[in-house]
Structure formats: structure tokens, C-alpha cells
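User: I'm putting together notes for a lab meeting next week and I want to include a structural view of one of the chains we've been expressing. I don't have a solved structure, so I'd like a prediction I can at least talk through. The sequence is below, exactly as it appears in our construct file.
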Amino acid sequence: MSAVLPSQSLATSTPRAAAADQRHLVGPLVDFLCLGGISLVLFPIAVLVPHDWSPTVAVATMLVANLVNHPHFAHSYQIFYRGLFAKLRDETLPRELRARYVFAGFIAPLTLAGFLGAGLAMQDLALLGLGANAMAFLVGWHYVKQGYGILMVDAVLKRRFFQPGEKKILLVNAYVVWLMSWMTVNALLSERNLWGIEYVLLGIPWPLVWAGWAAAGATSLAVLAMLRARLARKDGVAWTGVLAYVVSIYLWLAFVRLDPVWLLVVPALHSLQYLVVVWRFETNRARAAADAMEPSGIPILGRILRAKYQARLAGFAVLGIVLGFLLFWGIPVALDTIIKFPQETGRAFVFLFSFWVFVNVHHYFTDNVIWRSQNPETRRYLFG
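Assistant: Thanks for the context. Below is the predicted structure for the 384-residue chain, given as C-alpha cells.
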């Protein structure tokens, strides 16, 4: 999820006498746990787990990925491409937003597919590796943008608005921590491997890395000073959002490499945080339909999915699981099995690699459109 930057006018357009649950994405406990609280519990456990358990954790997280990680990518496609052509023809939408839909929906994926396709056609593993470099660079940007976005959403729901200067402090700190963590990885490692394809990292000089850590420390202190000033002014703080911000940029990024077990767990926690936002959005959208409360008419599951909106939500979830499986496993594994990609030594899973890189990178572009405050759907179904 990219950062949602709601304005105060957007927030105050919602009646102040809203129901209590409108102050949370789902509810106080679910928000706390899913937006960051579970990380506070699992982080010390992961660090204390003996490294002999790493293979077991790897298998467990791979299974969880099919129900959490991969559907979180699929859901962004379901939301983005649903009614896309109608949105492009809708002249009531801002021209800039429609241009973003065109770029993220067509130009970006075609360019990315062309790049990866060229690597496959030329059987050039080094060229394919550049795609993984882009993914490694963008994943940190995505994490900090999502953490910041969650904080902004929670601040709107709680009516704890941040001033423009305070937002800049939060954003600068997030970006500095991201760049610091990226430089650290590049300094520590010379190469990485994804599904048999190696990609070279940049050799960042250690003095530059130390400067990055110093800058991250300074901006982190600036954030603490800003929050302290808000408390002194009695402006209040959306603490669940702050928790989401903190775990996203520190536990999931700056300190993610403290332990290999923790590195395996973090993607699921990131995806869970995202899914809370998606399900707030999707539930409000389903309930807003004119026929939402009509009987679903499903013969077998009628007692569970009684209303049409419940059936639609179930269909959305099932489609996300199926689509996620097809994108990450079904289609690429089938292609790797059918089409042989010759190598001098060993065999890389080139289609598996290409699909994983494509979906991860394209996800950043689609999210940057879906979760913008200028997007009418976001304004209505996320904050409504």
C-alpha cells in the first residue's frame, strides 16, 4: 500500500458523531494486532528461535504466503482493474488520476513485461537479474510508504491530524531509514539469489553507510521530538498508526536482517497490515451496493453467506487466493516445466523468477493509484 495522503477537509467531511467503529479500520484490538502489534510479539520470539528451526519456519511461511502474501498482491489487481475502462472514460475523475491509471495499468506493466521478456528471449540471466535489483530497491520504498500511509489513515479516523511540517518530518525519516537499510544490504552482500538467478548488488562504501545510519538516527530523534511536542500541545496522537509506522520502517526494514527467521516472517506481517486496509475498503464497498442486504441465493452456503454483500466478499477472497496461486506458482511453474531454459550449469526457474519480479514491482505502481486521497473510491470506501 502506498501512502494515502488525506487532507483535513476530507476527514472533516465525515460527521464527528460517527459510530465508534468508524474510528478504526476494523476494531481497536484487530487494528492493534494486525497493523503492528503482532510484530512486537513475534520479533523477540524470532530472534530467540535457534537457527536450526529456520528450514521449518521457511516451510511454514511459504504455506502462509498462499493465504496472506500472495492474495495481498492479487487483491490490488482485483481492485485496480475492476471497472478500469469506465474510470478512464469518467470525465468527473481528475485528469491526473486518469493519467495515473493509464500509466500504472498499461504502460508500466507492458514496459516491465517487455524488459523481462527480452531477458527470457535472449536467455540473458544477467539482464533478468536487473529486474531483481529493481525489486530489491523498491521493496523498502513500498514498506515505508505503507507504514506512513497507515499512520495517515489512522490519524484521519481518530481525528488526530498532522500538520504539513509534521508530515514532512515523518516522510523524511521514513525515506532516510529506507535508503540507510538499502545501503547496508548492498555493503554487506555482494550478490543475492532468487530461484536460481543471481543479481549483483552495489558495493556501497562503509563511510557512506555510517553516514546513512547517522542521518537515520537524527531524523528518528526529530520524529520523537515532534510527537512529544504534539503531546505537550495536547493535540493527541493516533498511536495505532504510529505503531504501524514504527514497525514498518524499523522492525521490517532497518533491523530485518538481525535474524534469518525474522526475515522470513516479515513479508507475511506486511501483507497482513495491507489486508486490513483492503477489507475495510472492500466491506464498505460491498455494503454500499443497492442490493447488499438481499438474500444471496447460494444453495449450499446460504446459511453462512445470507446477504449478497457477504457472498461478494467471499467471492473476492476466494478469487484473491486463486489468482495469487496462479501468479506466483501455477502459471510460472507450468511454464518452467514445459519450456526448457538451457544453462551451462544447473537450471534456474526463469519463469518463476520473472513472475515474482513482475508482480512485486507492478504492485507498487497499482497501489500508488488505488490508495491516493484524490481517488473517489478511496475517499468513499476507506474513510466512509
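A couple of points you could mention at the meeting. The chain is about 70% helix and 0% strand. The CA atoms of residues 4 and 334 lie 37 Å apart.

User: Perfect, that's what I needed.
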